[in-house]
Amino acid sequence: MIKKVLSLVLVYLLITGVLGIYWSGEPDPFDVKAVNQQDATNPVVGTGTTSALIGIAEVLLEKPGGYLTNDLTPPGVWLDNIPSWEFGVLVQTRDVARAMRKDFSRSQSQSTEDPDLAKAEPMFNFNNNSWLFPSTEGEYEKALKGLKRYYVRLQDTQQPGGQFFARADNLSNWLANVSTRLGSLSQRLTASVGQKRLNTDLAGENTAEQSTSSAQDLEVKTSWFELDNVFYEARGTSWALIHLLKGIEQDFGPVLDKKNARVSLLQIIRELESTQGTIWSPMILNGNEFGLLANHSLVMASYLSRANAAIIDLRELLSQG
To answer: Residues with Cβ < 8 Å from 42, sequence gap 6 or more?
Structure first.
C-alpha cells in the first residue's frame, strides 16, 4: 500500500514538474497587425494601440497555464519567474488602459470619458492575486470585453461614439509614464551588485522639501532573493512595450513623421527587443561588475537605460513646434 502511494506521489510530482517547465516558457511575440483585422492600407486611428492592448491582455490570460500569479496548486504555486513576468505585463496594461481612458479617447479635459474604457480601466487595477470571489482572471476578462466593445465602436466610422485622438501631447504624456517605469526598473536591476549613491532627491531646486530627511550617502542593493523576480518583471514590461509601441507607430504615424521622429520610436523598439534574447543559463546570474560570472541584471539594465534615453529624446522631439 505504501509503495502504491509513493508511486502515485512520484508520478504526480513528475507530471507537475514537466508541466511546470512547459508553463515557465515566456510567450512568443505576436503580430500586432494580424490582431488588427482591418484593411492595412487605411486603418482607423486608434485601432493599432487598441489591438495591441487586446492582444497583450489575451496572452496574459490564455498563455500555457493561463494566469499563474494567483495559483494555489502545483505546479503554478511553485513558479515565480512567470508571475513576475505577468506583473511586468500587467503594469503596462494598466498604464496604457488609464492613458486611453484619460487622454487618448478624449478631445480635451472637459470632455466625457468613453463608457467602455471607464469600466475596463478599473477592472485591470483589480487585485492581481485574488483566487476567488471574485477571481483576478474574471475581472480581467470583463476588462478585456470592454476593450473589445470599444474596438468595435472605434472601427465603425459611421458612428462618432468611439474616438481615439492621436496628438503629440497625448503621446508625450504616456511616454513620460513609460520613462519613469523603465527608470525605476533600471535602478532596481543595477542595484543587483550593491551601490553607494549620492542623494539627489532634491537636486535642482533650492526651495524643494521632502517629508522626512534622508542620508546624503545611500547604500542601495536589491536582495538576492528578488533578483530573478525583478529581472523577469523587466522582461515582461519590455515584451508588452514592444507591442504597444508598434501599435503607437501605426496610430501616431503622421504625428511622428511631422516631427521627423519615427526613427526614434523604432530605435526604442529595437532596444527593447534586445531584452528578449534567449537566456542560456539555467538561472539568473549575479556576478560582480567585472567578475568571472555574468550579471544578467546589469545587461538588462543597460538595454532599459538606452531605451529610456531614447524615450526622453523622443519626447523632446514631440514637444517641438
So the answer is: none
Whether the CB-CB separation of 238 and 276 falls below 8 Å is answered with yes
35 alpha-carbon distance from chain centroid: 18
Q: Which three cell numbers stand for residue 211?
A: 517629508
Residues linked to residue 196 through DSSP beta bridges, in sequence order: 219
- How far apart are alpha carbons 125 and 139 in whole angstroms? 9
Q: State the residue for C-alpha cell 526622453.
A: 312
pLDDT of res. 194 = 65
pTM of structure: 0.91
Cβ 81 vs Cβ 228: under 8 Å? yes
pLDDT tens for residues 249-262? Answer: 999 999 999 999 99
Amino acid at residue number 261: A
Using DSSP, state whether 198 is helix, strand or coil: strand
The answer to whether 288 and 193 are in contact (CB under 8 A) is yes
Q: What is the pLDDT of residues 113-144, one digit of tens each?
A: 999 999 999 999 999 999 888 999 999 999 99
Report which secondary-structure segment, H or E, holds 197: strand 195-198
Amino acid at 25: G
Cell 528578488, residue located: 226
**Angle 296-299-305 from CA coordinates, rounded to 5°:** 140
